[in-house]
What does this fold into?
Amino acid sequence: MLDAAARLIAERGFPGVRLEDLGAAVGISGPAVYRHFASKDAVLVELLVGISTRLLAGGHAVVESVDDPHDALAALVDFHLDFATTEPDLIVIQDRDLASLPDDARREVRRAQRTYVELWVHELRRLDATRDERDARVMAHAVFGLLNSTPHSGRRESADHTRRVLRPMAIAALTR
It folds into this structure.
């Protein structure tokens, strides 16, 4: 149901999707969606809080599994590319519909995102101890912009090609 919701919300925008649409997409009635989610807002919360939490947990796992900062940054790029090439709908929803989240959920998403950024900042500063923290943060955000361009620059069926193009660009930007 969440995959269908992500696809529909990415295509139409959060205001343009009704629970009836979501139900129809998964072969149930609109009211039957309430067995799974308390409201349409709850669907959006699950999508955006869910991906933010998964990215943060995955980022932690990546940096904890690699000692060398260069290898950690490469692994973070690979991890983020996995997300960006397999779940582009969530990037579109995040970009366009974050403001539709209830305030508490939006704060939770932003908190997880800030912590995720700081994982990258930490590894960038481990790679170059003279690097200014603000500069490292700008670099991380710039690479996110590059990697999160996938819904607009690549097709789902060309994920391997997209990875081959974006991975070396991102690593070069981070390790210059």
